[in-house]
Design brief:
Blueprint lengths: L1 E6 L3 H10 L4 E7 L12 E4 L5 H8 L4 E4 L6 H9 L3 E3 L2 H8 L1 H10 L7 E4 L14 E5 L9 E4 L13 E5 L3 E11 L5 E3 L3 E6 L4 E7 L5 H18 L3 E10 L4 E7 L9 H4 L4 H9 L13 E7 L6 E2 L1 E3 L1 H5 L4 E5 L4 E2 L4 E8 L3 H12 L3 E3 L1
Parallel strand pairs: 1-2, 1-4, 2-3, 4-5
Antiparallel strand pairs: 6-9, 7-8, 7-9, 10-11, 10-12, 10-14, 12-13, 13-16, 14-15, 16-21, 17-20, 18-22, 19-21
Helix pairs in contact: 1-8, 2-3, 3-4, 4-5
């Protein structure tokens, strides 16, 4: 039986392990907390630091294949494991590039992939030289996650909000739409693409609020988005499951915002909404099975469940009974005992063949269920 490891034990690892139950695979997870979301679903749990060279190397050296659920991992250990014959999905060079927003942007520039104009800053004081670029978005090169590490700088008075660490200052796009495209690539270089998803972002948390799939797009925008997403993945030249986040401006130009080299929040709807989910697809890649069918079954909406403002402590899910009573509605709770404002605690997917009704139900769910303490 193939031995497969996952670095990280959060909700992405949890859902990946749920899909693993369909395959002949022995699963291993490394995470620092024994009560993490994925701990009880794997065959073998190892308590450890995924950023530590020795611990990651020791974890991976007996495995056949290894993947990540977060980019904050020890790259040097993955590089050594890959040299010694462990299949690391995606290749460590890809994780290394994407882990740094500076390296990621330089990668797009090198491969002529459209991305907003940017400049690298080493410290907050550097912004004084780039006031002519405002309004702009300041993004930490490393460490940002779930909306953290991003700051909008509208005018010179906002420069005090800048990060005093290596970052990129990126021209603020007049965003008309935000999209995500999931692309899967196997070892042979074959590619399949999921239909584009339109994402609605919470402006206060700067993270995904809800999304609709498939997105209804003008042909020109769809073709651009698909071509850009494929070019990103082909340029990485690695097997894996990739989420390419895209910005569409009012002139219908399409820009790469960033890429995730792993299963992603914007792909959760695929569990019920597509024939092969993003989690099933990654197992197919890791276990070297044929790529799955990305076609949608029905239009879907996916709503993130996050901790409500003002509540920290043991999680309570208000409105859960009412949501579970809805037809074609699927609730996923991530098994996190403690909630806090903005923390991802679960998601709800709903399917409906009438898009107007889908949006109505999405709004109803958003106002019905709440995570408090």
């Amino acid at each position: 039986m193939i031995k497969a490891g996952i670095l990280g034990g959060g909700q992405l690892g949890r859902m990946l392990l749920q899909a693993a139950a369909n395959y002949p695979v022995e699963t291993f997870v490394m995470e620092k907390s024994t009560d993490c979301s994925a701990a009880h679903l794997c065959n073998h749990f190892v308590k450890g630091d995924i950023t530590d060279f020795d611990q990651v190397y020791a974890f991976g050296k007996g495995l056949d294949v290894l993947t990540i659920e977060i980019e904050k991992v020890n790259i040097a250990a993955l590089e050594r494991l890959a040299l010694e014959g462990v299949r690391v999905i995606p290749h460590p060079s890809v994780i290394k590039t994407i882990k740094s927003k500076i390296a990621q942007k330089e990668f797009y520039t090198l491969h002529q992939i459209p991305t907003p104009v940017y400049v690298v800053t080493g410290q907050a004081a550097d912004l004084a030289e780039h006031l002519h670029r405002l309004p702009a978005v300041h993004k930490l090169s490393e460490g940002g996650y779930d909306g953290r590490g991003v700051q909008i700088i509208e005018q010179p008075a906002d420069v005090s909000l800048a990060f005093d660490a290596p970052a990129i200052l990126e021209t603020k796009i007049d965003i008309h739409r935000e999209l995500s495209m999931l692309v899967a690539r196997n070892d042979a270089g074959e590619i399949v693409i999921y239909p584009p998803v339109e994402m609605m972002v919470n402006p206060y948390l700067n993270q995904l609020d809800y999304q609709i799939s498939p997105a209804i797009l003008p042909d020109e925008v769809y073709w651009k988005a698909e071509a850009i997403a494929v070019k990103v993945v082909q340029s990485f030249n690695s097997a894996g499951l990739f989420a390419i986040e895209l910005l569409v401006d009012k002139q219908q130009d399409v820009w790469v915002n960033e890429t995730a080299p792993r299963v992603h929040n914007s792909g959760h709807h695929t569990i019920e909404g597509n024939y092969s989910s993003q989690f099933d697809m990654l197992w197919r890649i890791m276990l070297q099975y044929p790529l799955g069918n990305t076609d949608p079954i029905l239009p879907t909406a996916m709503i993130n469940l996050v901790g409500a403002a003002g509540y920290s402590g043991p999680a309570i899910y208000l409105g859960l009974q009412e949501v579970l009573a809805m037809d074609h509605c699927f609730v996923h709770i991530y098994g996190k005992n403690q909630t806090q404002p903005g923390r991802k605690m679960g998601h709800v997917t709903i399917l409906h063949n009438d898009r107007s009704e889908l949006l109505h139900l999405c709004n109803k769910i958003k106002h019905t269920i709440q995570v408090i303490a």
